[in-house]
Amino acid sequence: MFVISAPSGAGKTTVCHRVLESIPDLAYSISHTTRPPRYGEKDGVDYFFVSEDEFLRMRESGDFLEWALVHNNYYGTAKRQISDCLGSGKDILLDIDVQGARQVRDQLSEAILIFILPPSWEVLEERLRKRQSDDEEALKLRMSNARSEVRAVREYDYVIINDDLDEAVRNFKAIVQAERCRRSRVIPSLNWLSISV
Amino acid sequence: MFVISAPSGAGKTTVCHRVLESIPDLAYSISHTTRPPRYGEKDGVDYFFVSEDEFLRMRESGDFLEWALVHNNYYGTAKRQISDCLGSGKDILLDIDVQGARQVRDQLSEAILIFILPPSWEVLEERLRKRQSDDEEALKLRMSNARSEVRAVREYDYVIINDDLDEAVRNFKAIVQAERCRRSRVIPSLNWLSISV
């Protein structure tokens, strides 16, 4: 299981799409959310869009591996999503925030945590300016949130600097490929070796 | 620091050459040995060829990071080799046996240990037959040594199966690239982040 987090504006979504396109047997975990769909987003593809009542009911039933409240909207990963993917022998990619990543790590110590950073605060601000129609106040809030989220990088295994997109994608792919060579993953598949890990 | 070991016949040397050709800033640590040069081997390139007296003198002086006695020949990695490479900001690749790898791991916990395996015992035996002019007795000894060396795989971080050479090289390169994205490697280089690891 690969968990990826990043402050808004680091380019996480683009990197993830590129990685998912090019790595076989890596499935994307679709989150549940109470936020309304944005233009072009499809239910069951980008997210499972649910009402707050439905989300809280699932949460009470213990259906979520992790959940978080971000900007007044709930986000969560259903345990069912994970078991379906892992059951089919695939690795799984979770695109979740730092609160969620912490919960995953606490429950699944073998999860690999990856953090994507912009090359500098200046570039992050520039990217946010380009992409958002925010006023100065909203931009300041986003930057301030980013500065606080980034402190969680200390809890992650890997850090990818998204300066050049191709390089960031190559690094992400290398991490997935390398983790698949971990002794604990390889040895159990070698029957002829007669060695336990 | 990357440490690589493998039983004879796993294809370690070829994999290492290919990796060293294609990864910048990865230097090969040249070992000292008391075994005589084979045809084509150059002093100071493949090994530093030294007398047993010289080797033992260096060992007494504490000049070696690790050393081992393999098939009646001494092999060792001079500390000087390591400090020269790391001082120039390069990563370093140590091609050493399982005894040496153990000593490195004990002294440098951040060393990354990689083990190369053949796809099966049958393939290993076939490769040894092709390449050695050994009689049956010598071949049996090599196979028996391989079976005993392979047990050390449990002490390694990564395992690469050398079935397809290109795939093995790709996996090795992915491991080096991924390890360069480790939080502990990346964060200290980011002055703008003002975060300690």
Q: Count the beta strands of chain A.
A: 9
| Class per helix and strand makeup of chain A | alpha/beta
Secondary structure tally, helices of chain A: 8
For the biggest β-sheet of chain A, the strand order reads 2-7-1-8-9
N-to-C CA distance of chain A:
19 Å
Estimate the mean pLDDT confidence of chain A: 91
Q: Which CATH class of chain A applies here? A: Alpha Beta
Q: Main interface pair?
A: A-B, 33 and 33 residues
Low-confidence stretches of chain A: none
CATH topology of chain A: Rossmann fold
Overall 3D geometry of chain A? Answer: globular
Secondary structure: helix percent of chain A: 40-55%
Order of helices and strands of chain A: EHEEEHEEHEHEHHEHH
Q: Based on the structure, what is the oligomeric state of the protein chains?
A: homodimer
What percent of residues of chain A are in strands? Answer: 15-25%
In short:
The structure is a homodimer of 197-residue chains. Chain A contains eight helices and nine strands.
